[in-house]
Write a structure and sequence with these properties.
457 residues; mainly alpha; 29 helices
């Protein structure tokens, strides 16, 4: 870029044409502006044109320095919320380079400005700001400033402030949620002990916040504490406690013993939790597995795509249990039938020996349940039901041949013909005879061909 004088830059920034102002601002993408120009570029974030504001913000971020931040900080006091927020965004992107100017600006009288600046410092995450924010916490009287200080000190992992945050917690109900959230970001024994000591004294809503914080910072003692709390836990908190136990266990690489109330709570979470918490509960099981758990997993299989593979892995550890308990679920003839039949198909392929553990009565229950799905609205479900019936019990399949013939899907009829071609039974011949008169020529011609080959042989 050819050298451009400061006077020319300022002259073009004064142009009434926004495109002219944008053009001169963008000249500084590759050239660092001097202090005089920085002042005017900062002023551009007040421009009435959005394009000008955005161009200036880009340059002030690209060439961010402590000097840029020093000039920019006063704009957080703007009465125009959009200007205030844009200044905050630029300062945040400048990170540690903005800390000195922001810390000094805390001394301003406006509580709104104090809160805004402290919020930015917390988001930047530079711990060098901790001491000044802590000093402000000790003298602040405005609730919003106190809350901002506690929140920022939590993000900065400022252990020096724990005692004072505890005092704020004890002094005002308003401060409790923020204090607990702050402790949840501090890996500190005193913070952990405080949460555990006060947990039994608080209402359910506050206990929920405490559980979330313990999940983030919990140690071995916290893990044991949460497991014990399950004995008298409010029902609405059980799922959250199980989630917290999993997070702590995973972080510490500990496998808690699955028994008693913990086992019951895991089952409760598998039944009633959101998919995220169902996943926590299943993963918390580790290598543990038994009939009751498998049955609960089978009942929710197909309810949430994100945990389908996780459940499938656990289920395949006990294929015989699946075979014995699938009928109840398949009898519903519902939306989950597709997955359940696919699961059964996979067992036939990978664990065929599991059928040796299933008695004749249980096989009958299974085939009856499969036959219920011959009328399922999903054509793929019906096709799978046809195939599985012939694989598991051909005699039972032939009993339902009329239902199969009434399937309106052409591909299901074609698949049925392919199966019947290999079946040497009078009922198969009769079914093929019916198909030989089907209105679809592709079906009738194929059926006639099969019958012709049979007659010739």
């Amino acid at each position: 870029m050819k050298k451009i004088s400061t006077d020319e830059v300022l002259n073009r920034l004064s142009s009434e044409d926004p495109s002219e102002r944008i053009e001169v601002i963008e000249l500084f993408y590759d050239v660092r502006p001097d202090e005089e120009i920085i002042k005017h570029l900062c002023k551009c974030i007040e421009d009435e044109d959005k394009g000008v504001r955005n161009a200036a913000a880009s340059i002030l971020t690209i060439h961010g320095t402590e000097k840029v931040c020093e000039v920019l900080v006063p704009y957080v006091s703007s009465m125009d919320i959009s200007i205030r927020n844009l200044a905050g965004e630029i300062l945040l992107k400048n990170g540690s380079k903005a800390v000195k100017s922001l810390v000094e600006y805390i001394d301003k009288d406006s509580n709104d400005d104090k809160k805004f600046v402290i919020d930015i410092l917390g988001l930047i995450g530079d711990r060098s700001a901790s001491e000044r924010i802590y000093e402000e916490l000790k003298v602040a009287t405005h609730d919003n400033v106190i809350l901002a200080c506690m929140e920022a000190l939590g993000k900065l992992d400022a252990h020096i402030a724990i005692s004072d945050i505890i005092k704020k917690y004890q002094a005002n109900e308003l401060f409790k949620p923020t204090a607990i959230e702050a402790f949840g970001q501090m890996d500190n024994d005193k913070a952990r002990k405080f949460i555990m000591d006060y947990y039994p004294l608080e209402d359910v809503l506050t206990q929920y916040s405490m559980i979330e914080s313990m999940a983030k910072i919990g140690d071995v003692n916290t893990l044991e504490f949460l497991i014990q709390r399950l004995e008298d836990c409010e029902k609405s908190l059980v799922v959250s406690v199980v989630g917290a136990i999993f997070k702590i266990s995973e972080r510490l690489s500990i496998q808690p013993k699955i028994e008693g109330r913990l086992k019951k709570s895991i089952i409760c979470t598998i039944r009633d939790g959101e998919p995220e918490y169902k996943e926590y509960a299943i993963r918390l099981l580790g290598d543990y597995n038994e009939k009751e758990i498998v049955l609960e997993l089978l009942k929710i299989f197909g309810d949430a795509d994100e945990i389908e593979d996780l459940i499938r892995t656990k289920l395949f550890e006990y294929p015989e249990l699946i075979l014995k308990n699938l009928p109840e679920l398949l009898n519903e003839n519902g939306e989950r039938s597709a997955l359940l039949l696919q699961l059964l198909r996979e067992i036939l392929i990978t664990s065929a020996e599991a059928f040796e553990t299933v008695d004749d009565m249980e096989v009958m229950y299974l085939t009856n349940a499969i036959s219920e799905n011959l009328t399922n609205p999903d054509e793929e479900v019906r096709r799978n039901a046809i195939e599985l019936l012939f694989v598991i019990d051909m005699e039972k399949a032939l009993l339902f041949i009329e239902t199969m013939l009434n399937d309106e899907n052409i591909w299901n009829k074609i698949r049925l013909m392919e199966i019947l071609e290999a079946v040497e039974d009078e009922r198969a011949d009769k079914a093929l005879e019916v198909l030989s008169h089907d209105s679809e020529s592709m079906i009738s011609e194929r059926a006639n061909s099969i019958l012709s080959n049979r007659n010739n042989s």
